[in-house]
Amino acid sequence: MSSLSRRKTGQEFIDPPVSAYVAAYGLWLFTFLVGLLVAFVVRDLSQMAMLFTTWDRYAVHLVNQVGVVVLVVLLLVLLVTTEAYYRNGVPRGQLFLRFARAVGILALILAAAQALRLALEVVAGSVNLISVLILVAVLLVYGWTRTVVQRYTHPATGAAPTRAKRWQARVLIVASFAAGAVLMALPIKFPLNPYDEGLALVNGMRVLNGDIPFRDYWAIYPPGQSYVLAALFGVAGQSVLVERVYDTVVRVALALVIYLVAARVLRSWRWALAPYLAATVLLAAATFYGYAVFPALLFGFAALLMSFRSLDTGARGWLVGAGVLVGITTFFRLDLGFYTAASVGVLLILTWLLPSDGDAEWRIRTRQLLLALLAVAGPAALLVLVFYGYLGAVAGFDLMVENLLVFPATTFRAVRHLPYPPLLPDWSIWSGEGSFDVRLGSLFGDYLRFYIPLLVYALSALLLLGSAIRSWRGGRRFARTDSMAAALVVMGAGLFVQALSRYDEIHVLPAALVVVILIAWLVRRVPAARWEQPWVAAPVMLLLLVPVLLYFVAPYSRLSEYVRDYPPQGCYSVLPRAGCAPTLPGQDDVIQILDRQAAEGEPFFAGLPRHDNVFANDVSLYFLAGRPIATRYHELHPGVTTTQPVQAEMVAELTAQEPEWVAFINWGNPNEPNASRFSSGVTLLDDYIRENYTQLYTVGMYQVLRRK
Question: Is the pLDDT at 158 greater than 80, yes or no?
Answer without folding.
Answer: no
